[in-house]
Design goal:
single chain
């Protein structure tokens, strides 16, 4: 084969704009990919589905603009915040989770919005700090043993919630769980369908629920085809807002490493495509700080609108790697589509008919995966678990975080701090703070000062 006969390489780098037809179809595919997880977080936390979808689109567009249209990432609802959001809404808006039939709790949402906005501000500050001092210095304060252990706590601490929801109808929950796992395992590499196991699992669970009489079709019939989403204004004047700020914003400890990992992954794929296309590499991995500023900008936007706390989505990153389409204009298009979907009342009504048992079945899998991702982070960073100081930091985070959430009243340590934690410190927050404090002690007083040598790590 001559050089002139080489097959044409298909793909779009961030600045590239496909033809309009391709741009719309590729944008819709991005929305379809983020939809299951983004909507499920809204269901679990009693947020409005329409607002969450619309806020996802607006937040993504703002984040793309903040990065100067250089970093192609789509933003959806983050599972990492579920534990603290549910805790805050349960404490400060008591009716939110008293009735399993409640699908939207505006009083709780308004309080949580303040915490989400604070998360955005914290992420922006982290981003600016990284631009100033470099990522290596920050890694000393938040090493993988802390971020990974906190991620484990976030997932496993929700185990009781998942099982409680599943217990409303174990047959439906277990069928949903099994088919979702089957889809995720056996449809890998099968194109777009292989990236939607949660959506397909939810649909199967929904169908299975019909003969059990768990679907209220009247809700769908009575819904307006088009409606204005229930946008809410943050409760800045609420006395409980400070507790929401302190509790929710701290979860950025777990999401910052996740976002950075996504950036590195995307940079690798984008530069490989650029090489194949004969173009200059973009090296977006250098934009770690700017990426976190974009993350924070997204959270500030969704916080003001009343959407769930966000993160850039690994599912969408995988879709871009498969399709080789990293086009920022495509992501802008996806954002517009998500905004428009937020105004479809029938869609929100259908989503809200998803039975609690189905959500429970999905949650058993998803919450466990969050925990396993924390283990994967510790493993991938080759953390030396033969070293006592690493074991100490990880151990206290796991026991105080998981044990505190499951065993203590309302999942709160009884250490009251006026204004910030007037009812006690949420277990996940307490565990993260304790881990950071102990790690700082080891930084100030390293074992080497006392003649102690580091133990050799296993050869990975």
């Amino acid at each position: 084969m001559t050089a002139a006969a080489k097959p044409k390489i298909m793909g779009y780098l961030p600045p590239d704009a496909p033809p309009w037809g391709a741009m719309i179809s590729l944008g819709f595919q991005q929305v379809l990919t983020m939809f299951p997880a983004t909507v499920l977080v809204a269901i679990l936390t009693k947020f409005d589905v329409g607002v969450t979808l619309a806020a996802s689109g607006v937040g993504t567009i703002v984040a793309l603009l903040v990065t100067g249209r250089r970093i192609p990432l789509y933003y959806g609802s983050s599972f990492s915040y579920i534990t603290v959001v549910v805790t805050a809404m349960g404490l400060y808006a008591n009716d939110c989770f008293a009735d399993p039939n409640t699908v939207y709790c505006p009083d709780g949402v308004r309080i949580v919005q303040v915490g989400i906005i604070a998360t955005g501000i914290l992420e922006i500050l982290f981003g600016l700090l990284i631009m100033r001092i470099g990522k290596e210095a920050l890694d000393k304060i938040l090493p993988p043993i802390i971020t990974g252990s906190v991620a484990i706590v976030i997932g496993i601490a929700l185990a009781g919630t998942a099982l409680s929801m599943a217990g409303t109808n174990w047959a439906v929950a277990l069928i949903t769980l099994v088919v979702t796992i089957a889809f995720s395992v056996y449809l890998q590499g099968k194109g777009l369908i292989g990236m939607l196991p949660i959506l397909m699992g939810a649909f199967v669970g929904w169908l299975v629920s019909i003969p059990f009489g768990l679907i209220n079709f009247q809700t769908i019939v009575e819904a307006d085809i088009l409606r204005i989403p229930a946008f809410t204004f943050p409760a800045f004047t609420s006395p409980d807002a400070w507790a929401a700020i302190a509790g929710i914003a701290l979860i950025a400890i777990a999401t910052i490493p996740e976002s950075t990992a996504h950036l590195y992954q995307m940079s690798l794929y984008i530069d490989q495509l650029a090489k194949e296309l004969g173009r200059e590499p973009l090296e977006i991995k250098r934009l770690i700080g700017l990426n976190l500023v974009a993350d924070g900008s997204d959270d500030i936007v969704v916080g003001f609108l009343g959407g769930c706390a966000g993160t850039n989505y690994g599912e969408n990153n995988s879709l871009m790697a498969i399709t080789r389409c990293y086009s920022v204009p495509v992501l802008f298009t996806a954002g517009v589509i998500a905004i428009l979907l937020g105004f479809v009342g029938t869609l929100a009504a259908i989503v809200n008919t998803l039975p609690t048992a189905v959500v429970g079945g999905l949650s058993i899998y998803l919450f466990g995966v969050i925990g396993m991702q924390g283990i994967a982070l510790i493993q991938s960073e080759k953390v030396n678990l033969f070293e006592p100081r690493q074991l100490a930091v990880g151990a206290i985070i796991l026991v105080t975080g998981i044990g505190g959430n499951l065993a203590l009243t309302n999942g709160m340590f009884p250490f009251k701090i006026p204004y910030i934690f007037p009812d006690g410190i949420p277990a996940i927050v307490f565990s993260a703070l304790l881990g950071i404090l102990v790690n700082l002690i080891f930084l100030i007083l390293p074992p080497s000062k006392f003649g102690v040598q580091d133990r050799e790590n296993i050869n990975l």
